[in-house]
Design brief:
mainly beta; Immunoglobulin-like; 10-stranded mixed β-sheet; 1 helix; elongated; binds copper (II) ion
């Protein structure tokens, strides 16, 4: 009887250790909804959008983006100057611990220059570089529209 009891106690202890379905806390830099806009006919320049959240414990900065499909990628902010929309290149964008940066049409965005895509290419890699955090490479969907990110 004693043996049975101890076996039961053991299995109960094991049950207590079973991981719950609770989602573990997020870590690192998380990028979602990444899109590179299909370049318009004949153009080699296009825009890219994504959402970036800093789940690290450190205030950080996005200091550059690279892509194998573009000769150069710049970070741009959209600003109103004298009632006209204009774009300004950013070399660094601060992102505090816990903060989210949203790259979207008419806001912060990526500009990709000298873009070369295969005819049937559906996605492209983007590598984000940070002041502190390690580089993060994500796959961005190549899409005509960004409506689903609104
Ligand atoms: Cu721009």
């Amino acid at each position: 009887m004693k043996k049975v009891l101890s076996a039961l106690t053991l299995s109960l202890a094991l049950l207590a250790c079973t991981p719950t379905t609770e989602v573990p806390p997020k870590k690192g830099m998380e990028i979602s909804s990444a899109i590179v806009r299909t370049p318009m006919g004949g153009q080699t320049m296009t825009a890219g959008y994504f959402q970036l959240t800093n789940y690290t414990k450190l205030d950080d900065a996005l200091i550059g983006v690279e892509s194998p499909v573009a000769a150069r990628v710049e970070m741009h902010a959209t600003e109103m100057v004298d009632g006209r929309m204009s774009m300004r290149k950013k070399v660094s964008l601060d992102i505090k611990a816990g903060d989210t940066l949203e790259f979207k049409p008419k806001g912060l965005h990526l500009m990709l220059f000298d873009v070369a895509l295969q005819a049937d290419q559906k996605d492209a890699a983007l590598t984000l570089k940070f002041k502190h955090a390690p580089d993060v490479t994500i796959i961005a969907e190549i899409a005509d529209t960004v409506s689903h990110t609104k």
